[in-house]
# Entry
Amino acid sequence: MKRILVIGIGPGGPEHLTVQAVEALNRADVIFTFDKGEEKSDLLQLRRDICERYRGGKPYRLIEIANPQRSASGPYKADVLAWHRERAEIVKGLIRDELTDDGCAAFLVWGDPAFYDSTLRILEAVAVDPAVTFDYEVIPGISSIQLLAARHKIPLNSIGEPILLTTGRKLAEQYPSDFDSVVVLLDGGAGLDSLAGKDVDIFWGAYLGTRDEVLIAGRVIDVLDDIRRVREERRAAKGWIMDTYLLRSPSRS
# Structure
């Protein structure tokens, strides 16, 4: 049977792959990757570097998938679901046409596939289609959340308190004051902008695990302007940014 491996490859540094991820990478004949445009061509190169480093010269095919544009014309969730369906059709065709009956392909997913990534949802949608038969396996990876805490040398949670994982979009809608520790991902900038005047501590990191890694921490009223400035400078220089941050009540930091 055809087999798909969804491999968490960590936040960006090749050294963050687990032993299980390396073993899985060497089982794959084909690597699928969604093309996210010129501004992220260096992310594709990082995937190539990982394959070259850990496959020991073992041949493989790298197939770049044209990533369809997500509509922003309707409600957010409806647009995302429509986008997932479009991507699922593409993936179904690739599994059908690019793999032999006993072939093995891999999706290399940044961080951990369980955190704010659509690959598993897409494969779940494809798997129920009788037009293509395959099995798939998920290999967890080190997430940017874990690396953020490690770089700042802090625990993610306060003693006996829960953690909320959210997005910049949701943070901008309303600050989750019921939670002592809040981890924010996928922030286009609106989440950070909404923090102006908030009396909380922030532990921020961008390009975690790569040579471009940058960290800033402190009280929001003291460092928010610095974070936004550095963020825009780095985005302008590279054409893209991947960042995450932890917010915490100052009495618990």
